[in-house]
């Protein structure tokens, strides 16, 4: 009975939130419309990381490389191919998925910390190639003035496009988490030895999980291009990966929508803190320190803890 009531309440809150998001561009100034569209992209990125981190137990320390790779794939397609721009949105995430597959084949055989450290090394190699390949990627200048379809050429158009794509991708990831594959994936997180003992191919499951997460990170990269109209090598730098990791921890990394909330908080904090200080990394370090001491379960984790055990089971 309580579960049914909780589901009804959750559905109602979700519908109200969606209605508010659909109406926001009619009331917000242009800057806040832009900021909201950016938050949708980063929320999708953080949630894609949490797919393998919180639900798979994989120490993916350089997730930003898939995000930047997807953004660059779309930018290069839009500026060099001469093909319809909408085709770039469909193709670019598969380049990120392919990169995730290649890096996974190298790293997935390692355990936890070694997996993460090798991924940082390989991701930094991809960043270095992008940073230095001036004739193809623009080097440290990046690529600017990327053409976009007319439908998303305005801030309002980009807002609705990012909202729609992010919502669809979040629903797909939610379905994956609650699918048989997702249950096995969480079982590997909790006890990989037992999963091996019952015949689960742990490395193959982790490889599939990383490839899926890389795909959705690539989608987030295309959404970033939709908002900014440019790409640059910093999208693949390891410090951005650290920032995404903090988003997951801040919102609640064992809760599906926790990273999305963490992304919204961090993006807003970074945007408005930049008005008053240049030392954003110092503020980010303080946020991480406070998280470790006072919010180990994240903001949503604290909320669900206060809501009681029945609510926690529905996370």
Automatic annotation (TrEMBL):
Membrane topology: Multi-pass membrane protein
Signal peptide: none
GO molecular-function terms, A-Z: branched-chain amino acid transmembrane transporter activity
UniProt entry keywords in alphabetical sequence: Cell membrane, Membrane, Transmembrane, Transmembrane helix
Compartments where found: Cell membrane
Pfam family, one: BPD_transp_2
Keyword Ligase carried by entry: no
InterPro entries attached to this UniProt entry: ABC_transp_permease, LivM-like
Sequence intervals crossing the membrane: 12-28, 34-54, 61-79, 85-106, 113-134, 158-177, 212-232, 244-267, 279-304
The keyword Metal-binding is assigned to this record: no
Top-rank taxon: Bacteria
Main location: membrane
GO cellular component: plasma membrane
The name this protein goes by in its record: Branched-chain amino acid ABC transporter permease
């Amino acid at each position: 009975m309580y579960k049914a009531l909780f589901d009804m309440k959750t559905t109602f809150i979700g519908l109200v939130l969606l209605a508010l998001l659909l109406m926001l561009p009619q009331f917000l100034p242009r800057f806040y419309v832009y900021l909201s569209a950016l938050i949708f992209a980063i929320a999708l990125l953080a949630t894609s990381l949490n797919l393998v981190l919180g639900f798979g137990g994989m120490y993916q320390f350089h997730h930003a490389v898939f995000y930047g790779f997807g953004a660059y794939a779309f930018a290069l397609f839009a500026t060099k191919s001469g093909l319809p721009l909408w085709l770039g949105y469909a193709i670019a995430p598969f380049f990120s998925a392919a990169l995730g597959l290649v890096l996974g084949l190298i790293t997935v055989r390692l355990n936890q910390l070694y997996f993460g450290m090798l991924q940082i090394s390989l991701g930094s190699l991809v960043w270095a190639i992008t940073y230095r390949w001036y004739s193809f990627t623009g080097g440290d200048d990046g690529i600017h003035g990327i053409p976009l379809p007319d439908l998303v050429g305005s801030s309002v158009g980009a807002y609705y496009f990012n909202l729609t794509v992010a919502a669809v991708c979040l629903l797909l990831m939610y379905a994956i988490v609650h699918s048989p594959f997702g249950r096995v994936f969480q079982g590997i997180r909790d006890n990989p030895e037992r999963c091996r003992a019952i015949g689960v191919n742990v490395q193959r499951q982790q490889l599939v999980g990383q490839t899926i997460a890389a795909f959705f990170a690539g989608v987030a990269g295309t959404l970033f291009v939709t908002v900014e109209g440019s790409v640059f090598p910093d999208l693949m730098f390891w410090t951005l990966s650290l920032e995404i990791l903090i988003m997951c921890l801040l919102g609640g990394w064992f809760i599906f929508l926790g990273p999305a909330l963490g992304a919204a908080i961090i993006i807003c904090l970074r945007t408005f803190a930049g008005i008053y200080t240049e030392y954003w990394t110092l503020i980010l370090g303080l946020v991480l320190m406070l998280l470790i001491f006072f919010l180990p379960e994240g903001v949503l984790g604290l909320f669900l803890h206060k809501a009681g055990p029945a609510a926690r089971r529905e996370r």
